[in-house]
Amino acid sequence: MKSIRGVWLSLLLVPLAAAPPLGAQATSRNDEVENCLGCHGDKDASFKLPSGETQSLFVARDVFEKSVHGARQGCIGCHPGQAEVPHPPLTAKDKAAFSAGFKDLCKTCHFENYTKALDGVHYKILAAGGSAPFCVDCHGVHDISHPKVPRTKVSETCGGCHGDMAETYAKSVHGQALLAGNQDVPVCTDCHHAHDILDPRTKDWRLTTIDLCATCHTNKTLMAKYGLSTNVVSSYLSDFHGMSAKLATSGVKPKAVTALCIDCHGTHDITKARDGGSQVLKENLRKTCAKCHVGATQNFPAAWLSHYEPSLKKAPLVWAVGVFYKIFIPFIIGGLCLQILLHLWRVLVNR
Ligand code: HEC
Ligand code: HEC
Ligand code: HEC
Ligand code: HEC
Ligand code: HEC
Ligand code: HEC
Ligand code: HEC
Ligand code: HEC
Ligand code: HEC
User: Fold this and answer.
1) Ligand 5 atom closest to Cα of 192?
2) Ligand 3 test: best mutation among 64, 65, 68, 78, most atoms within 8 Å of CB?
3) Distance from the CA of 35 to the center of ligand 2, in angstroms?
4) Res 350: pLDDT
5) Of the residues 197, 232, 255, the one at which a domain ends
6) 109/59 same-domain check
7) Which of 126, 257, 261, 300 lies in disulfide reach of 296, CB 3.0 to 4.6 Å?
8) Whose CA is closest to 204, among 123, 137, 260?
9) Residues of the chain with pLDDT under 70
10) Among 149, 172, 197, where does a domain finish?
11) Are residues 93 and 115 in the same domain?
12) What is the pTM (predicted TM-score) of this model?
């Protein structure tokens, strides 16, 4: 291992040597990078922390050049504190403290994502002293690439720690489509966000999932591509479960308990509605209802309209009542208006 303390020494002793003069400001990005890599481009560059741990100081040129920052940014944008050579003395005692010193580095240029991250579940855990990811754990350091290109990269990033979720998701209707190159299906961050991730177990967040599914499942052009119905949301909302959800969301009955899309379809394990393992397949439906409707019999789901609009074939009684009201109500109101008009006419004529 070559110590670069030696390099300090030679620079101090021979200020006019081939290496850039001490303290000289690099005039361009390229000069700057060359200057820094003059020492940090050395594979063996490292130093010992007071704790005895060895910290590598190597930055691979080819990796950095290919990164999103490498093309335009130099080194000092991220490391203003090390612009001067030799650098100010290091205060970190061990590796953990060394890394922690860089924690807020991204804030200067990515303020919006930084502040969003402070609202997320991961940061709450970090702030409480636990271990959870911050910027570089998901994005990398000198090798940062576009985080959504290709889109499968998102589940790989999250799956690095949430392996079981990523595995389940990969087998779902959304995940399988994603792996086959489909760009229309949701990835982890469409549902959870990347930075301001909220706790998915809270009731308030769970209620927002109805709108989440609706963003795509009510989009007529999108759903036509897959031959899927877009009335799944409206039919749900006019059903007893959806009604209760609306009351809970609007705060009229904040404590209302009900079934959401995800209670019947699942979350990371959503399947095609007519697939063998589907929770909403006719054969499996009783079990799904029974999660909440204790003692539901085999006939229980049959008493429910699912996402269907009532029709003469499906639920004729409900349909007939609907039709009756559609005729009966205009008839009554029309009659009432007619009666008032006739009265008015009489009054005017008899005056
Ligand atoms: C003459 C060799 C040399 C040059 C040139 C050099 N460094 Fe360093 N750098 C070091 C050494 C040695 C350390 C080890 C820690 C220390 O002694 O400060 C270090 C440490 C670092 C660290 C770790 C944090 C710290 O404060 O120690 C960063 C970040 C860093 N350098 C960035 C840069 C950047 C950016 C440039 C270009 C502007 C640069 N270095 C140029 C020798 C150099
Ligand atoms: C996008 C911001 C960014 C850019 C650009 C950048 N760095 Fe870093 N660098 C970081 C972060 C963040 C860390 C801390 C990594 C950690 O947690 O240990 C770091 C760490 C370092 C370290 C300490 C050793 C290590 O790998 O942890 C050195 C040395 C270093 N950078 C040098 C450079 C040099 C030289 C360049 C230019 C070629 C450069 N950096 C460009 C963000 C950046
Ligand atoms: C000195 C300013 C600066 C700092 C500090 C900085 N970045 Fe960047 N970052 C940029 C710029 C400018 C771009 C856009 C590059 C482009 O589009 O060519 C960028 C792009 C990105 C992208 C890709 C964005 C996309 O649309 O695909 C990511 C991810 C990213 N930065 C993460 C980070 C992280 C993580 C850190 C901290 C370790 C960091 N950046 C620190 C300036 C900075
Ligand atoms: C838990 C992993 C994770 C953490 C932690 C994280 N990011 Fe991201 N970031 C992502 C993903 C995934 C994307 C892709 C965007 C998406 O899918 O919505 C992204 C996108 C970005 C982008 C591209 C522009 C955009 O908003 O889409 C930037 C810049 C960025 N992050 C910076 C940061 C910074 C700065 C931090 C730290 C404050 C950070 N990220 C923390 C996962 C993370
Ligand atoms: C470096 C590891 C790591 C990465 C990468 C990561 N997470 Fe996490 N995440 C954690 C840890 C640790 C927790 C705390 C709870 C736990 O132990 O599961 C957590 C908690 C969560 C929670 C809250 C649920 C809970 O169990 O507390 C959600 C939601 C979540 N992460 C989503 C994501 C998403 C989405 C991504 C990708 C954008 C991601 N995570 C990337 C480590 C990670
Ligand atoms: C279609 C939307 C959707 C997608 C895509 C999605 N999730 Fe989730 N996720 C949810 C919902 C809804 C919950 C709440 C589940 C519940 O409480 O029953 C959840 C819960 C979680 C939790 C907390 C679970 C727990 O009980 O601890 C984590 C962690 C998580 N998701 C990570 C991920 C990761 C990683 C990905 C990508 C591989 C992902 N999610 C993709 C909707 C989604
Ligand atoms: C980003 C858009 C998007 C979001 C958000 C989304 N989906 Fe999907 N979903 C799709 C697309 C596209 C397909 C068709 C995939 C295919 O067949 O290859 C699909 C397929 C499905 C299917 C299978 C239908 C069948 O029988 O073939 C179900 C069930 C489903 N989604 C339920 C949900 C639920 C529940 C949510 C909310 C938690 C949700 N989706 C959120 C886009 C989305
Ligand atoms: C009480 C249980 C239940 C709830 C709640 C529920 N669904 Fe369904 N869903 C079903 C059943 C059962 C089917 C199968 C209907 C069939 O195959 O005839 C289905 C079918 C679907 C399909 C496939 C449609 C097609 O054209 O093949 C989609 C997409 C879907 N639901 C999305 C949703 C969304 C989005 C929500 C929330 C707004 C939701 N579901 C709420 C039980 C439910
Ligand atoms: C996550 C729990 C849950 C699931 C799963 C669920 N329900 Fe419900 N259901 C409720 C709750 C709570 C109510 C009462 C409040 C309301 O109307 O939303 C209810 C109300 C009903 C009602 C109105 C009459 C009554 O008993 O109050 C019927 C009928 C019904 N559900 C049928 C079904 C069918 C059929 C399924 C399966 C396809 C199903 N439910 C799945 C929670 C659930």
Assistant:
1) 35
2) 68
3) 14
4) 78
5) 197
6) no
7) 300
8) 260
9) 1-27, 312, 314
10) 197
11) no
12) 0.90
- Same domain, yes or no: 26 and 122: no
Write the pLDDT tens digit of every residue in 103-118. Answer: 999 999 999 999 999 9
On whether both 221 and 293 belong to a single domain, the answer is yes
311 CA to centre of ligand 1 in angstroms: 75
Q: How far is the CA of 172 from the centre of ligand 7 (A)?
A: 10
Residue span of the structural domain in which 69 resides: 1-101
Separation of CA 306 and ligand 8 centre (Å) = 7
CA-to-CA distance for 164 and 69, rounded, in angstroms?
32
- Per the structure, the count of domains in the chain is 4
For residue 59, CA distances in Å to 99, 176, 257 come to 15, 37, 55
Judge if 192 and 205 occupy the same domain.
no
| Residues 193 and 208 grouped into a single domain | no
> Which of 110, 169, 191 best tests ligand 4's pocket when mutated (most atoms within 8 Å of CB)?
110
Q: How far is the CA of 19 from the centre of ligand 1 (A)?
A: 14
Same domain membership, residue 91 and residue 111: no
Q: Mind listing the pLDDT tens digit for each residue in 249-286?
A: 998 888 888 999 999 999 999 999 998 889 989 889 99
Q: Which residues contact 47 (CB under 8 A, 6 or more apart)?
A: 3, 4, 5, 54, 55, 57
**Nearest CA owner, ligand 8 atom 35:** 213
